[in-house]
């Protein structure tokens, strides 16, 4: 039976999650008293719960040391959780009156302290708005105004009037804090770097506080004052926490296993389906541990990181959820999907400022190692025997995924489709347009044991007709039922996936030419795993490597690949099939996919201040190519791209066209291709034969290395002699530049790629190379 949060623990969550709310109010009103008092007075209009108000009023050393609160008051837990989330012990730090404050400073970019080089960029003083262009950090520093904060406070007030301080409103509170405080700095102390948002700090404080509460309960700690205040230094060394992570293994094979050419519409529903399996797994574990989504550090692409208490109950719950997930996955999918998880204990000092970066990274490495080992040894002998016994060994195959299980009894081969594919096909019809999904125990698409997902309307939710848990896709929502929002990169142009292979290319305004093909993009972030482990350890002796920065880094990366990508994909004829925490699968009109890949790489570099990059593979295919072939061949190209020195590679069409992004964009896409295009667009039909002859000469030069420069020169000279006088000037310029490139091996190889791109832009279907 899933535990419900105790009344005191609910109060602790709200008190810890709102402990710094006074900072926002204070910056809006200009009050000259401590933010803890301002916050407490502000919340009295919305709750009379003394334990919540105490956590808000007494979470700093000076205040709590002078208070007369009981030894078991929750304020002591909020106090030490605040210290751990901040990464510093404030007992010996100067109090607010003796510190230099820049009250209206705006938030610094989290990437300023990431990587080897310190940078200075700032966010605009705005609220997070899923309907507007994302807030890109820039070098310009536009500070907050008192009016900016007044607007934020108004939004907070509006939300607080709609919720109650009860467990069922926990997600709504977190939604509100994310929407209003994602770009509000937690600290305005001029001696600190203001790169942690108030949202991230308050959320992490709530996560740590509730983990401590569970830890204290199992250890039968009742004197919170002694344990977490008077002997705080000792507790910082106590391994009271667990870092837990899971990986839904086989996720990409499941998405791309479709073999029928006409089933591409299922791609996006399969992707969303597996995202929801992972989200439900997260919530199952949190509910088992009486925790909220505040404890979720990161979720995306079938991966997750969660902070848990280091208790026997938590460890038992981890094993229970893992076992139940794998039993359900095996019953439903056989060996296709596997839930690999790992966890390790850590103490606060290992994740606070001043930690040993090696010890910090070791926490993540231990968890990663456990997950890898589980993947290598998925099943015991009993489970393997069960897998061998279960399922049919022969028979008709599903025309979509080639499974032979769960097929209906029909006579016509062409109507054969397994129950899972049938459910996904039904679910996929309006997957992009739908926003609200209910998790219930009876009806819909099964996403866990006795857990089903179905589409519901906002009208039904507001009418109180929906009883299950609600997930809201790609928009903020508050309220009792409208609880958990999830970001999903699901942009799709108005074209159906099958139409991409029928589209021509727009070369000039009102002129469409070119080969009709679709392309697939597969890419992922280079060395993202190291970013979690050591991303902030390379500056200032590892001073910036703290849990709060890892949490912020996790959030912004998830937002980039799930929320922001939808925004800048709108200019392209593409469909984002899958976008996890670090990898992307997109399909679209072939030229648009290349343009989108360039845009995606450029946006990620801008977003991370050139501290992160992509490796990408792009394959080009006919419209009837089965999805599994699209995915497999493009995956091979992606692997080829990863072989580029210093990563950030792109491989197009075949492994021989593998370059760094910088080289491809600068030397091929923006130099040689426009050069070729500008010349041949002015030629008549004779130019087509000419371009194919040049391609033949280039290939002989590149592949066989026996073609002489003189042969090219002779060919071009003869062509020039046959031209009219007016055409010779333009041709001479082309000839000299082409010969220069041809004479250099690297430029010649680039030239072949540029010519191929031009031919694809202008060639008609059925026309040979």
TrEMBL record:
- Which PANTHER family does this UniProt record tie to the protein? CRISPR SYSTEM SINGLE-STRAND-SPECIFIC DEOXYRIBONUCLEASE CAS10/CSM1 (SUBTYPE III-A), CRISPR SYSTEM SINGLE-STRAND-SPECIFIC DEOXYRIBONUCLEASE CAS10_CSM1 (SUBTYPE III-A)
Q: What Gene3D superfamilies does the record tag this protein with?
A: 3.30.70.270, Hypothetical protein af1432
Recall the GO molecular function terms of this protein's record: ATP binding; endonuclease activity; exonuclease activity; transferase activity
Ranges of residues in domain GGDEF? 516-655
Q: Which SUPFAM superfamilies does the entry mention?
A: HD-domain/PDEase-like
- GO terms under biological process: defense response to virus
Q: Which domain of life is it from?
A: Bacteria
Record protein name field: CRISPR system single-strand-specific deoxyribonuclease Cas10/Csm1 (subtype III-A)
Q: What Pfam families does the annotation carry?
A: Cas10-Cmr2_palm2, Cmr2_hel_dom2, Csm1_B, HD
CDD domains for this protein: Cas10_III (cd09680)
Question: Does the keyword section mention Ribosomal protein?
Answer: no
Report whether Transferase shows up as a keyword of the record: yes
Names of the cofactor(s):
a divalent metal cation
Keywords noted in UniProt: Antiviral defense, ATP-binding, Endonuclease, Exonuclease, Hydrolase, Nuclease, Nucleotide-binding, Transferase
PROSITE patterns linked to this entry: GGDEF
* Originating organism: Pilibacter termitis
Family, as annotated: Belongs to the CRISPR-associated Cas10/Csm1 family.
